[in-house]
Amino acid sequence: MRSPDQLLHPTPAGLYCPVGDFYIDPVRAVDRAVITHGHADHARAGHGAVLATPETINIMAARYGKDFTAKRQPTELGEVVSINGVEVSLAPAGHVLGSAQAVVEHKGLRMVCTGDYKRRQDPTCTPFEPVPCHVFISEATFALPVFRHPDDREEIRKLLHSLTTFPDRAHLVGVYALGKAQRVISLIREAGYHDTIYIHGALKSLCDLYEDHGISLGSLEPATLEKGVAKEEQAKFAGKIVMGPPSAFRDKWARRFPDPITVFCSGWMRIRQRAKQSGVELPIILSDHADWDELTQTVRDVNPQELWVTHGREDALCRWAELEGYSARPLRLVGYDEDS
Amino acid sequence: MQAFSQLLDSLILTPGRNAKITLLCDYFARTPDPARGWALAAITGELDLKTIKPAMIRALVSERMDEELFRLSYDYVGDLAETVSLVWPETHGANYSPTLDEIVDTVQDTPKAKAPELIAHWLDRLGASERWALLKLVTGGLRIGVSARLAKQALAKFGGVEAGEIEELWHGLDAPYEDLFAWLSGDGEKPAPDMSGAFRPVMLAHPLIAKKDRDDPDAINPDMITPEAFAAEWKWDGIRVQAVSENGVRRLYTRTGDDISHTFPDVVAAMEFDAVLDGELLVRKPDGNVAPFNDLQQRLNRKTVSKKMLSERPAFIRAYDILHHGEEDLRALTFRERRAKLEALLGTSPTDRFDVSPLVEVTDAASLNALRNAPPQPEIEGLMLKRWESVYEAGRPKGPWFKWKRDPFLIDAVIMYAQRGHGRRSGYFSDFTFGVWAETDDGHEITPVGKAYFGFTDEELKELDKFVRNNTIDRFGPVRMVKATREEGLVVEVAFEGLNASPRHKSGVAMRFPRFNRIRWDKPAAEAETLDGLKEFLSYSEA
Fold this sequence. Notes:
The complex is a heterodimer. By secondary structure, chain A is of the alpha/beta class.
């Protein structure tokens, strides 16, 4: 069996497989890319060829236009494709719609790159499946023992409770456009809230795409007002949920809402000062990334010979692995956002 | 406990004073005695459960998790109570929430040796938010963005009384304040505690900012400084104190109301008057002049004070205001009238222990500006300006008093080491050690002279962080050593308030209050200050 570094190793453009001549989630345009999921820091436009799940391909086309790559290679979960003699397949990652782990196998050596993942149930995507392997390359966004995401339903209840406590205030819910928005809407619907949810324009195409994939989101309307309508019209947002990317709420756009309360759904909301510094009044701890317990449980489930740790807090997960007797190393890949 | 942790959570996340006051009022209205009183004591910093120290909490955690993982977590979060509350292992099915009074009573009845067990027992039973509130409560120092003053304003609103009434009573009251809440709820008389020897809330000054910094709302026009409007005094470099001597009770307080009488028996013994004085605590040199701040510092924070210390570093008070004389409350009088009373009390017969802060003649702003930067003695750090017509008002009112400090000293130094910050800055190298050139037989050697961790903008912090990452030559745990040679090194202009001789430091000097003034990306490292050049500032501080 060859050394794992010969099959996959970090380069400035991203994780590279020299034998198969392809990259996994490259941060620059390359000839051939395997893409784990549709978030912008993992899925960029301009590659020669893209291998990904059909959902991820659709998401990329929706975000970048149909010419986002010269050659599309939609690959179903579990289907094995040979790239220059290297066997590549995709396994579900449970992160967002279409998200997958990249499984790379050559001459008896199997390496799994998780991309981003989580373990808890999510109504909008296929749950994570552990794949036994020699080298497990795990994300580490929330790899500190302080990050333990609470129960999703309890967190959503906090939001719905606030709606009844402050029936005159518009609840501006900050969410990422892909994945988080649709998951939060689904959870709100599961909790029995069926009023119209108003969405920022940046969320629309991805919500439509989720609907096309059979994920029902209920009544959604644009959070816009016709030019020149009476000020009283703004009152329709009072006590309602308005969703948009967090950046939009810092913008002039947000001035139209009556006495707004800012809500942000993210795993970072676990840290009070972080919530305070971003001006959030109602933090909802909800993430599409694995928390500390999920990360460590996953390493135990996969039980690899070697653990490689990428984007996030590598030091802590490597330290834990060392204490547990796993051989571990940080990859220090660059170019990935903290949370998306 | 749940209500208290929710209150703290909301206070942290709610912007705006009025909204915070509303939250506090709601809590006082909803919560029974004595829990609301203990909460009030915790928020105002009056609750001191001496048995529980932060080190003890750390020890509890290290029994439960790896030290290194805890360190990484603490580095990231930046707050001990919050870190511990988040990493504490959850016990399934355990949910018991003690009330605030149960916690306070139990902790007070628990011997020190048993305290860790008690805290661990509670931590095992609470959720993350309540664990955080419990740790905040028992270790003190809430840091939730609510000052004692704001809490008193909330009490005033809750009871429909003036905030001044609460301020006035405050130091005569004790937690859990049942008599205070009874009065404020309309169920009792206004408490009338024995105020003999009590601390009176002090009046503080705003820095004087010349009008040219127009963006600053506190800016004033120096032309308004006229002899008719303002009195001026030197701003002495000691600590602000209040000397209370009434009905046989003698107390010495810091400006925040901490009782330091036991540390300064020499001063207390000399309080041969029946009055409340406001002044500067200083140490006298054998020649009668004021000693450097360093000498005073040797006397602070001591539980016992030796005879040697008392004779070598005799303390005295330079008084600048009088709040009470006998039975008479003078605070509603003008500064002009109070000054006359003060001079009548002390001016005619100053003692070794008490004298009156002399007035500085006011002509115009330009001459005062020159004076503040060239004071007659090194232990003067600038001027105080007080309106003749100002009454003595608790807090930091805008307009009546100004402090006009000497401009800071500036030197160019070279960055030598950097360390990662905490909390919001945990991803950045934000704590810097800098040095200057010492001449040795082998040429020039860089010598550390101080540490600074502010004075730069967020943008500059990013650039500094990048510089550190690109120029690291060695690592010691969390500390990075960066290139600092005659040819290569980053020069920063450092501002500081004074320089003291310090045998404990390799350089032999210690800076007071150093911070970055600007980053000199343009300046060659070889042109930074020399150690001899820096030591010339000693003459300003220790002439």
